[in-house]
Amino acid sequence: MAWTTALKLVALLLAGQDVAAQVPANKGSDFLRFACSQLVIERADPLVNPGMAPTPHMHQIVGGDSFNITMDPETIDPPKTSKCTSCKMVEDFSNYWTASIYFQSPENGTFKRIPQMANGRLNGTAMEQEGGITVYYMRPFSGTNKKTTVFKPGFRMLTGDPTYRTKQSGALVNCHRCLAANERVMGGNGAPCDANDTPYFPNKPCPGGIRVTVIFPSCWDGKSLDSPDHKSHVAYQSGGNLAGDKCPSTHPVRIPQVMYEVMYDTSQFADPKYYKNGKQPLVYSFGDPTGYGAHGDYLFGWEGDSLQRAMDSLNTNCWSEYCPELKLQSWEAANSCTKSQMAKEDIGTDTWLTELPGGAKVA
Known about the structure:
5-stranded antiparallel β-sheet; DUF1996 domain-containing protein; DUF1996
């Protein structure tokens, strides 16, 4: 199928290329893209394990510093209760989190956390966040109706499942891209979760790192801010992972499609000796050695109507970080927005651990 102009721009941005010359004057595109620095790495998950500290496995969390173990929508309004955000967009106090990845030594079975790294270059400027992720908010890439309705306060969702150990049916929505050494700075070419990506961990060394992509649903039932499984109130459009302009009748409201890119720095663990006889040494923090259990969590927290204004202006002059409807903060300000672990423990960044945090078994 032919690439649309918008999807070509997605590929350019994913490759970190300068899109300023690619977008005609006064013409927008179909997404916002910005980076968020690392807020905290800890075992906390207010969606799946509300009130529990610590939870069973480790996550990297970014966004507003009001993040806590409950995120009770009755008492916590992120734009009002947060004092800062680790995201470049000042009005975005949402929280975004994904599972950590660990290297398991083939020699003695000990674990060391794979650090996150900055994601490519945007218009020639290094995205100098500390760890963190890159966030996309996308409108339909095909069809004539581009209108999206942004989330309501209290909205949350997740995608993927940590229990998966085999490929699921349908288009890929969580995937891994193995980067060569010369792709480390630019982050690799190609659209998200295409033929260059795998639902499983790469079975070869990745000296330039691994880019993990997490794609959320683009359709909403229009009623529920959450659901018992944190999935049923939203849906993917059938036929692909990137949104078109039609939603199923059960979920008729088109919402901005959220997508994460997480860059894991595997350069120090890229020795070919770790990749023999079909084996590879990486494991997700919940004990998954396959990679199929990749997942992501999202909790909405934009201030006022800022996100709606931005999505509505995508057909005029907004693309990526370049959106006059939104305010940007400096990298120094984003990087300085951090918080302490609620349950303090060694996460295995500088030390070798005899077991995964929380004691998850590799299986």
